[in-house]
Amino acid sequence: MTCDSVSGLIPLYFYGELPPDEEERVEQHLHSCAECARLMEQQRKLGAALDGRKAQVPPMLLEECRSDLMAAVQGGAPRSDRLAKGPWTLFLEAMGASFGGLGRLRQPVGALALVAIGFFAARFSLTTPGAVSVTPSPSDEVYSTVRSVQPDAGGHVQIAFDETHRRTLSGALDNPNIQRLLRAAAHEENPAVRVESVGLLKNEGASSEVRDILLDRVVHDSNAGVRLRALDGLKPLATDPGVRKTLAQVLLSDDNPAVRMQVVDLLVAHRDGATVGVFQDVVQKEDDNSIRLKLEKALKEMNASIGTF
After folding, report:
1. What is the H or E stretch that residue 165 is in?
2. Which of 168, 184, 226, 248 sits CB 3.0–4.6 Å from 278 for a disulfide?
3. What would the mean pLDDT of 290-303 be, rounded to a whole number?
């Protein structure tokens, strides 16, 4: 991949939105290109800054969005009693201009509108006359997801919703709560979160629990960046027979050349007779010339043949 193509994919890669094969190609490029790695670091800083930002939302935005959505679904126009057009009105008009006359697209556009409504509703508390106000406390951000709405004949409404509270915890790496969250983060869906958490946990590899996490990530994580961070954490443990057995498994099965090269470095640095057969097997089918040459050199130094017999 070229630097131009990778720079355009970095935001999608950061948020885990790339297909696995394309994600792997981006990762390989990032490991070999300092400039693109710098852009990736800038993306991480931007993501952290955006996460810490609190948006100021007009109180009537959600009500306007709902009104405009209903008008669009019913085939009418947005309400005209406002002096200025709201952002949702402008969005609907733009969608109408783009897809006008294509009746078959009305349902997809409506679905997109519902997704946008969910986006706003999940992030901002509701403040409407006569309704219960769900307000975040100063230390928490509250995200509400409405699951059902049931009106009755008496004019009352029963709403079932889930609430999620986002909190921020700061502390030293040896803080038990920080450690607990880092261990949980190593299994999160977001690859950027896994990369950072494993990168911090690697310094605690002496712990049996952390060691098990590093071994699990190096074998099972779908993101090569996470696997490489886990390998960094396993370097001090490369003489351990259990760790070496797992590394040999990774060398035989991992499809990322950067990961395989790092595994080879660890196994060669602490070579033993148990790895001879693995090295011979890999040499016969390895496509990467650098890895193959390093394994051949290690076998010669161990007085072992290149092929298997």
Report:
1. strand 157-166
2. 248
3. 86
